Amino acid sequence: ETRETMRMKTHPQYFLSKPRRSSKAGMTIGIDLGDIWSHYCTLNEDGEVVDRGRFRTNPSGVDKRFRDIGPARVAMEAGTHSIWVSEQIRELGHEVIVANVRELRAISHSDRKSDKVDAEKIARYARLDPEILRPIAHRTVAQQETLTLIRARDVLVRLRTGAVNSVRGLAKPCGYRLPASSTLTFAKRCLAVLPPGLAQALGPLLQQIADMTVKIKEYDRAIKQLTETEYPETQALIKVYGVGHLTALTFVLTLGDKQRFQRSRDVGCYLGLRPRRSQSGDSDPQLGITKAGNGYLRQLLVECANHVIGPHGKD
Predict the structure, then answer these.
(1) What is the pTM of this model?
(2) What are phi and psi of 274, to 5 degrees?
(3) Which end of the chain is more exposed for a tag (fewer CB within 10 A), N or C?
């Protein structure tokens, strides 16, 4: 390089006049997913808005919008519909980025928040640097369907717990304290000790508790069968004392592809089991865990740990 060229590069105006780097992905599309309608914003290589609109949040609406366009980078927030939408768009030949919602406070806490504005912001983040969105890897739809079986079981367990607490609370004003019992035999033991008046009033509730217990057992059998047939990798986890079929299957389905974790310690961070940090200058306080990621799996793991180190665990 000549001295003249070097002198020009040191001048501030040189950096201002440099051409803007375009996105390698060509078009970039940001999507703000909604339950019925989803809004999108399309940017060209120069970052200019070339298209806005909305489409129905269903398979036919997604197909109609993204099938007849060239390969593009498509970004969206993680949410209720992001699993199947991202998978369908990826199958149509597009690059898909699913953003971590916790990292998008500039969108969720904006004072000019709207579906159209959110879609454009997501598109601009994805065009400039996708790492700003802290992309996440979704499980497949098939894995999500199996995980739905586990979550449906959890709904029944919580309903049964609420019903049991209600029966105990309704019996106390009448002077009856129901005996301590496991949920498996709760309905039978209560009917044996309740007077006729209370038995007539609480009988339907107790019958519902008994029916839910039967359904939960059916879920447990289905989960055990899945661990033995569809997901054999769970067998290594079940060998750990205190870990059952439910926790093992939930663990495998929630993590999905294990190859995306470089170290085993990254799994704890992914599930929110690492301490939060707010370091500034000489201040570096010790904080609680982040509680990010899947709360249900974190609950199961904590229950397993308490069983292992508790009085029922092995020495």
Answers:
(1) 0.73
(2) -110, 155
(3) C
